[in-house]
Predict the structure.
Amino acid sequence: MDKVVASAAEAVADVPDGASLAVGGFGLSGVPNVLVQALYERGVDGLSVVSNNCGAMESGLAVLLAAGRIARVTGSYIGANKEFARQYLAGELEVELIPQGTLAERLRAGGAGIPAFYTPAGVGTQVAEGGLPWRYDGSGGVALASPAKEVREFDGTQYVLERGIRTDFALVRAAKGDRHGNLVFSKSARNFNPLAATAGRVTVAEVEELVEPGALDPDAVHLPGVFVQRVVALTPEQAADKKIERRTVSG
């Protein structure tokens, strides 16, 4: 039952080239930076990543992206990540952009063993009808476009069929975790982390504070340990290393 491993390097040692990863985080919040860095240091290549965005401010998945280690991204937001946009438009990266709520539900469905579901999001657009650029040819043309999806009517409303997502591995970050893998997330850092964790066949969690079994109130646990296979305890320095994307002050 003790799922704690000695280091982030050991926790991701069996992630191969070409693996698919569900990665928690939203912007700079709740991103498993230490595990991502360990993957970078291993030199893993050709990764297919499922995450809301692909890193920001040269941290998180942006580290792997800048090194050319990511082959495909399934997400909902490019944002201010100029390198992400550059690789996409240059045809160096395959990108499946989907509505954010649909991404969340696809991860949840995959983790719950649901192969597909219907949603009204995207009906009447290229999300359902196909034609969204997945890969450009580097000259402004589309080399690969999204296929059309099944649309069905229920009670007079059109819905599009979306598939659940399962990945080889999942990387998440939690505020607290015990040796059995039970996790507690802090405020907005919860974001996509529980959903990503359930979608991974092997889930690795980096935790800012490791506690002994029984120390967490069962009613406070956000993700049961049954979904987590490995736990990495961060050092105080790693736990405190949290970047701020935009600092605002009142005059």
About this structure: Residues 13 and 176 are 23 Å apart (CA to CA). The mean pLDDT is 96. The chain has two domains: 8-115+164-240, 121-162.
